[in-house]
């Protein structure tokens, strides 16, 4: 497996995933699982998770655990909304990135300079951030037309675009053909489903989404192909070795954690943009910083893995949002059952009898649930990412490898 | 030696005091920038807090915070981070309130039944994270974050709808939606008669929660368990040096699960204050007590008495800031910032104090060795 390049492996996973979705869809007589709209809203939900996950990647690759992602994201939502309302959408993004970066700086000061436990500092930031935004809301948002202590006026967005030729976007004033839309309409097995999902990913996507997606290869290049990345990663693996090489470990940890906060802030700005909500509401991050952390773990502390986790976790949210009668969400239970069955087979081929039995039992429970119910209560959609990560951890914890010195206290000159 | 002991105590006390002063200073600056008068604001809070009714409110808020602080502290003593107190207490309170109303038991037995169910649910949910840690090597921080979300936005959100008693229920003056109410006899009686014996009648329909007694018992139990029992010794030993403890015959895996189970059992009691106050599990319960509990445990240095002080400080800020809405001296949200700053300042101060103490110890050790010349100055 290790010989296949990562992008090819993840594409294969995606193709198998679509195959499962197509098959399940056949059972349930619905086409919303592979509709273009589904992948479109999946992307919208995935972007904040992806940005938070990439943020977590920077911090943890530098050896600092950042569970303050949630708090930094909250700062991003408030400043993103306020900046966009008062100065315009791009300024909102700039301010959100700065505010998140300030949150990261605070975390860096506490953990790197003062050597405070990373989890404790993160918890403190998660307590502090909503306090700051609530105070600012009471002082500032209440003075804005249409704002109140818990919400902002409408937030303007940065605009969207559609990819020409593949998604049917415009080149100048000429409307190009809609290639994927054409294939999707042919109703060819699997091929049309993939095209339909791909069209969703290329139609009316926000510029911020595009930035977030382009960040994935950029981060992969930056962290694994540059001197800067090597130095940052050594701080997360063996800071003493880095120190022996003359690297200023503190500085790289600071950079990693501040970038981590800035990306979480950007995620916050995306949440308040019209793509998702178009308004700042208190408490609207609803644990997405933690889901980002989950995506990071799911993705084994790698950029492509984080993208995979973000899309996987964004998908049920995207389905749930468009699924008024709960039938499409219901089909997802069958997808879960199939997934658990695959885990059982995988464990059986590795002669892990206990794991195989456990996965099989869980899979049968899911299958039974699917057969005995008609709809899925919407609350289950909210917890699906967490359940998936827990299951992944239960069965694959030994295959995941976090940076060796992640979360450990590092003092210059101490061993 | 006396000098060194005095200095040590001073260092221990100095850290939280510095954190408090720093937080007051920071919030004063914020208030000044936003055009409010910090002296007037804190003055209003102080005078409000000196009223008997406010004190009752503060104790009512401090009670669950204290229990949450102890729950977190039990884990901390073994270097375990139970972030899952939030999920544990909400799930425990919901199940206990439902089963408490469903199962028909006379008076005191029902009270005991509700408490036992709450502790059992909390213990089971937290123990699951412990089992995952020892059997699968999953860090408890990660698993409890996931379990928190699963409990709060999944199980509790679902069950509260399923178990909702038809329509709105009248409680006091406001009607709130929630599970079937528990009969009056199944609720822990309030302590107003005790307060009134010493002072005067408590006005405004305020009731001092009977959970205060349970909280005190939890604190005593925690103190005895950690400082006076074999188990507590093993717990602290595993926390300080797990390998040494294991060599000394402490079963590491069993200790992890036991600590998580104990922590969860105590966490299960956190929500009982609210259940006993309103008589059922409301659809919108008080959330986030677990995270505040982490702050309280940290500020109180995991010490049974220290956590009392920390819980009172946080409860004071929460409750007495309510008056700011009426006096208009400042925006009451300033106290949330204060709480965040206190906790961040406190952990930084503790860390600095710890290093100062280490240097002090190294120096006094060098002095005690006398003529043996240390190779290099510390």
Order of helix and strand elements from N to C terminus of chain A: HHHHHEEEHHEHHHHHHHHH
| CATH top level label of the largest domain in chain B | Mainly Alpha
Number of strands of chain B: 2
Q: Nearest-angstrom radius of gyration of chain A? A: 22 Å
What is the mean pLDDT of chain A? 87
Uncertain stretches of chain A: none
Radius of gyration of chain B: 23 Å
Number of helices of chain A: 16
Write out the strand line-up for the largest beta sheet of chain A, numbering strands in chain order: 1-4
Please describe what this structure looks like:
The complex is a heterodimer of chains A (415) and B (378). Chain A has 415 residues and is mainly alpha-helical. Among the domains of chain A are: 34-158 and 204-311, no CATH class; 163-200, no CATH class. In chain A, 69% of the residues lie in helices and 2% in strands. Chain A is built from 16 helices and four strands. Chain A has helices at residues 6-28, 36-61, 69-87, 89-113, 118-139, 179-186, 191-202, 207-225, 227-237, 239-244, 249-272, 288-298, 303-322, 327-349, 353-372, 378-396, and strands at 160-161, 170-171, 174-175, 205-206. In chain A, helix 2 packs across helix 12, helix 3 packs across helix 11 and helix 12 packs across helix 13. The mean pLDDT of chain A is 87. Chain B is an all-alpha fold and 378 residues long. Chain B folds into two domains: 1-36 and 344-370; 38-330, ABC transporter involved in vitamin B12 uptake, BtuC. Chain B has helices at 2-33, 38-49, 52-76, 85-102, 107-136, 140-162, 192-198, 211-228, 230-240, 242-247, 252-268, 272-278, 289-299, 304-320, 324-327, 334-369, and strands at 169-171, 174-176. A two-stranded antiparallel sheet of chain B has the order 1-2. In chain B, strand 1 (169-171) and strand 2 form a beta hairpin. In chain B, helix 2 crosses helix 14 (304-320), helix 3 runs parallel beside helix 8 (211-228) and helix 13 (289-299) packs across helix 14. The mean pLDDT of chain B is 86. Chain A binds chain B through residues 65, 67, 106, 110, 114-117, 119-121, 123-132, 134-135, 137-139, 286-287, 290, 293-294, 297, 377, 379-380, 382-383, 386-387, 389-390, 393-394, 397-398, and chain B through 30, 34, 81, 83, 132, 136-138, 141-143, 145-147, 149-150, 153-154, 157-158, 161, 291-292, 294-295, 298, 331, 333-334, 336-341, 343-344, 347-348, 351-352, 355.
């Amino acid at each position: 497996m290790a010989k296949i390049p990562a992008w090819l492996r993840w594409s294969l996973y995606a193709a198998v995933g679509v195959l499962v979705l197509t098959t399940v869809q056949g059972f349930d007589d619905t086409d919303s699982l592979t509709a273009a709209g589904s992948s479109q809203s999946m992307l919208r939900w995935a972007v904040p998770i992806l940005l938070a996950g990439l943020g977590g990647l920077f911090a943890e690759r530098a050896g600092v655990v950042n569970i303050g992602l949630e708090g930094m994201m909250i700062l991003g939502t408030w400043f993103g909304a306020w900046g966009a309302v008062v100065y315009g959408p791009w300024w909102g993004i700039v301010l959100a990135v700065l505010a998140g970066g300030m949150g990261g700086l605070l975390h860096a000061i506490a953990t790197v300079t003062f050597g405070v436990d990373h989890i404790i500092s993160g918890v403190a930031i998660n307590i502090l951030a909503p306090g700051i935004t609530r105070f600012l809301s009471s002082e500032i948002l209440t003075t804005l037309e249409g704002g109140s202590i818990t919400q902002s006026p409408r937030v303007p967005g940065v605009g969207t675009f559609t990819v020409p030729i593949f998604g049917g976007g415009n080149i100048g004033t000429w409307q190009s053909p809609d290639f994927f839309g054409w294939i999707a309409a042919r109703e060819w097995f699997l091929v049309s489903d993939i095209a339909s999902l791909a069209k969703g990913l290329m139609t009316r996507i926000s510029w911020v989404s595009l930035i977030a997606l382009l960040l994935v290869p950029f981060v992969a290049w930056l962290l694994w192909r540059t001197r800067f990345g090597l130095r940052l990663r050594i701080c997360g693996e063996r800071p003493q070795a880095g120190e022996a090489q003359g690297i200023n470990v503190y500085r790289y940890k600071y950079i990693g954690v501040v970038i981590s906060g800035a990306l979480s802030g950007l995620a916050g700005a995306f949440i308040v943009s019209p793509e998702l909500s178009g308004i700042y509401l208190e408490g609207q991050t609803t644990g997405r910083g933690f889901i980002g952390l989950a995506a990071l773990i799911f993705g084994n502390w790698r950029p492509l893995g984080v993208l995979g986790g973000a899309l996987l976790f964004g998908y049920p949210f995207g389905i749930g949002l468009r699924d008024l009668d709960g039938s499409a969400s219901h089909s997802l239970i069958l997808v879960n059952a199939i997934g658990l069955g695959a885990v059982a087979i995988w464990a059986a081929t590795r002669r892990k009898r206990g794991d195989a039995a456990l996965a099989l039992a869980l899979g049968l429970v899911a299958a039974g649930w699917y057969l005995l119910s008609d709809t899925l209560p919407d609350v289950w959609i909210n917890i699906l990412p967490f359940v998936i990560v827990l299951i992944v951890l239960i069965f694959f914890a030994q295959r995941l490898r976090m940076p060796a010195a992640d979360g450990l206290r590092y003092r210059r000159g101490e061993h | 030696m006396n000098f060194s002991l005095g200095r040590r105590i001073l260092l221990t006390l100095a850290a939280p005091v510095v954190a408090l002063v720093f937080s007051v200073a920071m919030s004063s600056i914020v208030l000044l920038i936003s055009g409010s008068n910090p002296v007037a604001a804190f003055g209003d809070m102080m005078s409000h807090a000196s009223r008997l009714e406010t004190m009752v409110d503060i104790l009512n808020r401090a009670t669950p915070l204290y229990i949450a602080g102890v729950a977190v502290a039990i884990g901390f003593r073994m270097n375990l981070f139970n972030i899952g107190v939030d999920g544990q207490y909400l799930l425990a309170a919901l199940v206990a309130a439902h089963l408490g109303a469903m199962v028909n038991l006379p008076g005191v037995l029902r009270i005991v039944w509700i408490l036992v169910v709450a502790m059992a649910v909390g213990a089971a949910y937290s123990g699951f994270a412990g089992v995952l840690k020892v059997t699968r090597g999953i860090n408890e921080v990660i698993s409890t974050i996931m379990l928190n979300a699963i409990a709060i936005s999944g199980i509790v959100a679902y069950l509260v709808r399923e178990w909702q008693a038809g329509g709105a229920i009248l409680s006091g003056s406001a009607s709130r939606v929630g599970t079937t109410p528990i009969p009056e006899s199944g609720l822990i009686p309030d302590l107003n008669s005790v307060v009134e014996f010493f002072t005067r009648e408590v006005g405004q329909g305020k009731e001092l929660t009977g959970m205060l007694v349970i909280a005190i018992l939890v604190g005593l139990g925690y103190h005895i368990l950690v400082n006076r029992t074999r188990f507590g010794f093993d717990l602290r030993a595993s926390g300080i040096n797990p390998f040494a403890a294991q060599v000394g015959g402490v079963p590491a895996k069993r200790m992890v699960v036991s600590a998580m189970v104990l922590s969860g059992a105590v966490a299960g009691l956190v929500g009982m204050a609210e259940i006993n106050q309103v008589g059922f599990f409301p659809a919108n319960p008080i959330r986030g007590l677990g995270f505040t509990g982490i702050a309280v445990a940290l500020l109180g240095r995991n010490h049974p008495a220290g956590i009392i002080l920390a819980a009172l400080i946080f409860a004071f800020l929460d409750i007495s800031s309510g008056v700011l809405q009426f006096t208009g001296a400042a925006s009451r949200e300033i106290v949330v910032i204060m709480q965040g700053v206190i906790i961040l300042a406190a952990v930084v101060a503790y860390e600095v104090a710890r290093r100062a103490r280490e240097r002090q110890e190294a120096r006094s050790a060098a002095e005690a060795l006398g003529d043996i010349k240390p190779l290099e100055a510390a």
